[in-house]
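Figure 6 in text form: structure in, sequence out.
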């Protein structure tokens, strides 16, 4: 009887410890994020599920920054951040402009401090882009300029300004699952819509999963 109680207790403690570790990891280390729109195509597709490295940039400089793998955000990083106009919503874009940079866009060419930016990740689908000329815009200190890779279909810093440093949630790390998803699904938020979406995943998990994107590192 004592052995049985001991075994049950060990299982219980293992479950509790595992739950604590998982909670710690999802709170401080990684966060799951789903791509809802096509603003980052074709690098990131609607229905891609990402893991975001929340430790990448840390919170504030200090002792922990010397112990944990924090680093300064870099131009070209794919970042996840709180949308400045509604911090309850998370956005994913590419970091283009650093604090103090002068950002300008002429036609489809981005200039940083009057130097053309080489970009191999952009996509243009509209023959007549929204912006024939943008800027120049000087990124405020402590903030970042973010743009979608799909330049003709991206609500980004060109529309709503720069992203404060403390709004950065982390760096997009890897795609852990990708599922074919309708372009307007993010607009379908009712309980009925959610049940329909769940049913679609349940019935078509193997058919609609983009297996070739699994474990794809985000660059």
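Output sequence:
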């Amino acid at each position: 009887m004592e052995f049985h109680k001991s075994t049950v207790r060990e299982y219980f403690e293992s479950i509790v410890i595992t739950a604590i570790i998982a909670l710690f990891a999802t709170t401080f280390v990684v966060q799951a994020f789903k791509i809802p729109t096509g603003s980052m195509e074709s690098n990131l597709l609607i229905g891609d599920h990402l893991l975001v490295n929340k430790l990448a940039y840390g919170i504030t400089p200090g002792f922990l920054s010397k112990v944990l793998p924090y680093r300064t955000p870099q131009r070209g990083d794919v970042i996840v951040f709180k949308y400045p106009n509604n911090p309850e919503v998370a956005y994913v874009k590419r970091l283009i402009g650093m604090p103090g940079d002068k950002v300008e866009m002429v036609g489809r060419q981005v200039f940083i401090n009057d130097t053309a930016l080489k970009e191999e990740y952009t996509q243009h689908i509209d023959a007549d882009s929204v912006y024939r000329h943008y800027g120049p815009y000087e990124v405020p200190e402590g903030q970042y300029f973010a743009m979608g890779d799909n330049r003709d279909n991206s609500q980004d810093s060109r529309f709503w300004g720069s992203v404060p440093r403390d709004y950065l949630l982390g760096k997009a790390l890897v795609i852990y699952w990708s599922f074919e998803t309708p372009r307007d699904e993010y607009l379908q938020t009712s309980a009925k819509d959610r049940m329909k979406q769940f049913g679609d995943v349940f019935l078509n998990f193997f058919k609609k999963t983009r297996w070739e994107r699994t474990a794809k590192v985000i660059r």
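Caption detail: Residues 16-28 have pLDDT under 50 and may be disordered.
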